[in-house]
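In this supplementary section we document a worked example of the pipeline. Step one takes a protein sequence of length 352 as its only input; no multiple sequence alignment statistics are reported here. Step two produces a three-dimensional model, which step three serialises into structure tokens for compact storage. The input and output of this example are shown verbatim.
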Amino acid sequence: MAEMVLQVIEEYEISQQIGFFTLDNASNNKTMLKAIGKTLGFDPDLRYCHCNGHTLNLAMHAFLFSKSKHAAEEASQQIAVLSQTEELGNQEREETAGQWRQFGTLGKLHNLVVWIQSSNKRYQAFKKLAGHTIPRDNQTRWNSWYLMIDRALQLRKELSSFIDDHYAEGDIRLDYLNPEAWQELQEIHSFMQPFYEITLETQWDSSTIDQAISSMDFLVSHYQDTMEFYSQQGNAVLTERIVTSWNKFDKYYQLTDHTPVYAAAIVLHPSLRRRYLDTAWEKYSEYIEPAIGAVQKWWEEEYKPLSDAVDTATLSKFEQWKRRTYLQVSSKDEFSRFIQVGLPFKRQPCAS
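The serialised model returned by step three reads:
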């Protein structure tokens, strides 16, 4: 992988213009970046931006299916294998449905959607009754689960009525959703909704790095608020889900400290600057000065014009003007003054 990327960099002659790499969290990507960094002479950790969408995907899979941080990866693999087996039809539906039921209410909802879609007659009958269909989850995108739950909650009355009318068919009675199951789906939906909104907002080309880190900051508060709420409610199951997801999310949130680009995107944003860090990171104030220090070091080493003596006689008239102008402007470093000014920022309370 590194050889291919380096070939492209060499072909386009951009080795001196390389900034940051946005990659998903696969370990081979980190290995690749180390090889590229060694060749081009940069610290790979400083240039590694983890894909925000992939981080959310991992955190949500942990929330949906695992019961401990150690089981998160195993559960995701089980879901992937089970989904593939079902897609390929390599197993009887009754056996596959039984395996899905091991995942509780979510598995039962999955079975209901598969059962409706497995017969064109049932599919058309439900569509006529409800006016809509319920989209089916898939193994690659966590938000397919959110969309399935979202539509099922909208069509709860119609889905329950349809199940009642077909209750005697096959083993569908084993997937019946009682009021407690519907309450669980509502709680899962409420927790997942901010993740879904952030995924939509940060997946397009117009999204920026400041959106990535500020949305992660919001999700930290969302984890804290919802965990406290459900702990007080005595909901041990959902609390455990949230803790497991938070452990997975926090692993990648902590990695944002390894590169100054995230803090730089905040403190150099005209509407945020240092005021954002002072407010959003108030509970973790020990991280503020190191983050700003890392950005300032990056600024001084990579971007601030150097004042080394240069034989200006060798420069063109324009180059002399440009050097003189930039050195004059930067004679007083504006970085510290710039980041101190910012519009007021107030964290909005998180609705549990």
